[in-house]
Amino acid sequence: MKFVIVGAGMGGLAAALRLSHGGHRVTVLEKTGMIGGRNRPVKVNECRFDGGPTLLMMLDPFRKLFADVGERFEDHLQLELLDPSYTAWYRDGSRIQGTPDKARMAEQIELLCGSEDAEGYRQLLRDLEAMYQEAMPRFVQRNYYKAAHFLNPDSLRSAARHGMLGNLARRIERYVQDPRLRMLFSFQTMYLGLSPFESPWVYAVLTYMEYGEGIWYPQGGLVEIAHVIAKLAEARGAEIRLDTEAAFIEGKTVELVDGQTLDADAVIVNADLPYAERELLGLKPARRRKFSCSAYAMYVDYCGELPALGHHSVFFGEDFRGNLEQIFNRRELPSDPAFYAAVSCRSDPGAAPEGHENLFLLVPCANLDRNWTQDDADTLRARAFQRLAAEAGFDEDKIAGFKDYGPQDYAGELNLERGAAFGLSHHFSQSAFFRPSNRSRQNPYVYFVGASTVPGNGLPMVLISAELLEERLNRELGAAQLR
Q1: Taking the chain, what is the end-to-end CA distance rounded to the nearest angstrom?
Q2: pTM of the shown model
Q3: Strand ranges across the sheet with 2-6
Q4: C-alpha span between 411 and 416 (Å, rounded)
Q5: Residue 46: how many other CB atoms lie within 10 Å
Q6: b/e per residue 254-266 (b: at least 16 CB within 10 A)
């Protein structure tokens, strides 16, 4: 069979690998000059950065993709378990190092917060592991062909047993009393662009992924994963066309901007769903969808050393909840922003030349529901730099090169609706069965893959989405034809 995939993000590349391995003719169309989508490289002078995800967690979906095509993930990438995973910096001057070493983590908590919170941490991990083991196969690693696949007695009992729909921030309070630990074990929903105060408890499995399984780093950066998947797909006959933009999809025909047309048995769309519906399918996107927050990203070629910063750092502001209220509800610039910092040359010396460090900063901010201006960028940059100068020895005069990326760039370059850096939000009404399906309801020849569809955002979920897509194609186009 013949498939055309629109978009060479991670979901599109993983789908191309799976389908080409099955012996099908696959053509991937990418309108830009590079693969990876949000998982793209950025370079400032001789410093290189991951332009999108910088944390590699939950290796099972990566290993499964490679195993399903007769490969071994670790044979293609040099992986390092980061320990500590990151350092958390608090406004009171205290710090704690997140680590998958449970004994060492409990010891740190006991020294900082007391034995009661140390035991609370241990119980938290036990409960999260149990929920993770049930939630993944039951609610994540599956297609929903009808409501009964979601709303059935077994699923309802599982959700009730773990309180999956409870409020995450409030549930964390049952385990630990120190406000610093409550921040530490709940901020992970921000990886989805979702406030923990608006998140269902089930997303606390992200905390388990960090503290139960750890954070990894592949030499060359996370962008290397996209390159490896693309090479494996091409080795199996897939064609990846860069600088080739799709203009419209009619039936199972893709019309390109230059007027050419490509016919297929099915078209797979890896673009952000609202953009795809409006621009490629001529549909009016649903009005009631919710979107994630955005982010202001800075890529700094720093001439000098920042020894206080490890590979990953998280800086919390004084008022954790107030910061999130400003971003998600009041659409204001955070007055004391929490932010993330990465210096990947700590683990990958080739990412920066000698005497330099590649400093990446990510400040969560409102999406384009707020009118983003250059003044906003200047303000957030100044607030982050001031914090780094006061606590980590940062000197603005040592900046040798700088690039930034804000909500308007996420909207303009990556076609993310409202500049929402994490795409469609993961509120309960847009999760599991309620997330947009991986098959178009309007065009029976169009399927979707990637963060906009099931199961959701994040590299592991996107790889699972490609697996679910292959399963659905197998079911709907015929097992004999697909294999």
Answers
A1: 10
A2: 0.96
A3: 239-241, 25-29, 2-6, 266-269, 446-448
A4: 5
A5: 15
A6: bebeeeeebebeb
